[in-house]
């Protein structure tokens, strides 16, 4: 059975809730899943994963969450060739072009590590509403179709 690993950072609880929705949708699709908060793991978390998922918020002026900084720095040096991934971001549209910037930074880092993006990046303003949940279900479908 393919293993999907989800790592998340959440300040307000929005991104944690988003990661829980992804986790339950992956389980409903019949795949094994492990979900962890980013301060609990290091970059080796993805070593045995078939699919890697990052759920992150964007802090301040387009900054990575401080608790994700070390993971991010190590990720660019990690070899994840042969793995697939998807990224989900939460943020506030008041920040304009910086909305969900951290999610896009993680896409770049994962691609540098050799992983293949197979799901469209989902951007959610604050907490997940009904239409966002539908996007997350589609995200999981795209991801698991490649397993």
Automatic annotation (TrEMBL):
<dbReference type="GO" id="GO:0010181">
    <property type="term" value="F:FMN binding"/>
</dbReference>
<comment type="similarity">
    <text>Belongs to the flavodoxin family.</text>
</comment>
<keyword id="KW-0288">FMN</keyword>
<dbReference type="InterPro" id="IPR029039">
    <property type="entry name" value="Flavoprotein-like_sf"/>
</dbReference>
<dbReference type="Pfam" id="PF00258">
    <property type="entry name" value="Flavodoxin_1"/>
</dbReference>
<dbReference type="GO" id="GO:0016651">
    <property type="term" value="F:oxidoreductase activity, acting on NAD(P)H"/>
</dbReference>
<dbReference type="InterPro" id="IPR050619">
    <property type="entry name" value="Flavodoxin"/>
</dbReference>
<dbReference type="InterPro" id="IPR010087">
    <property type="entry name" value="Flav_short"/>
</dbReference>
<comment type="function">
    <text>Low-potential electron donor to a number of redox enzymes.</text>
</comment>
<keyword id="KW-0813">Transport</keyword>
<keyword id="KW-0285">Flavoprotein</keyword>
<dbReference type="InterPro" id="IPR001094">
    <property type="entry name" value="Flavdoxin-like"/>
</dbReference>
<dbReference type="InterPro" id="IPR008254">
    <property type="entry name" value="Flavodoxin/NO_synth"/>
</dbReference>
<protein>
    <recommendedName>
        <fullName>Flavodoxin</fullName>
    </recommendedName>
</protein>
<keyword id="KW-0175">Coiled coil</keyword>
<dbReference type="GO" id="GO:0009055">
    <property type="term" value="F:electron transfer activity"/>
</dbReference>
<feature type="coiled-coil region">
    <location>
        <begin position="119"/>
        <end position="146"/>
    </location>
</feature>
<feature type="domain" description="Flavodoxin-like">
    <location>
        <begin position="4"/>
        <end position="144"/>
    </location>
</feature>
<keyword id="KW-0249">Electron transport</keyword>
């Amino acid at each position: 059975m393919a293993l999907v690993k989800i790592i998340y950072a959440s300040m307000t609880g929005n991104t944690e809730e988003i990661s829980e929705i992804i986790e339950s949708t992956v389980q409903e699709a019949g795949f094994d899943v492990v979900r962890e908060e980013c301060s609990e793991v290091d970059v080796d978390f993805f070593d045995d994963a078939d699919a890697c998922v990052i759920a992150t918020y964007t802090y301040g002026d387009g900054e990575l969450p401080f608790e994700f900084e070390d993971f991010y720095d190590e990720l660019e040096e990690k070899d994840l060739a042969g793995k697939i991934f998807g990224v989900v971001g939460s943020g506030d549209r008041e920040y304009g072009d910086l909305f969900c910037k951290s999610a896009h930074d993680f896409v770049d880092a994962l691609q540098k590590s050799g992983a293949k993006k197979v799901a469209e990046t989902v951007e959610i303003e604050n907490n997940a509403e009904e239409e966002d949940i539908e996007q997350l279900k589609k995200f999981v479908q795209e991801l698991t179709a490649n397993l």
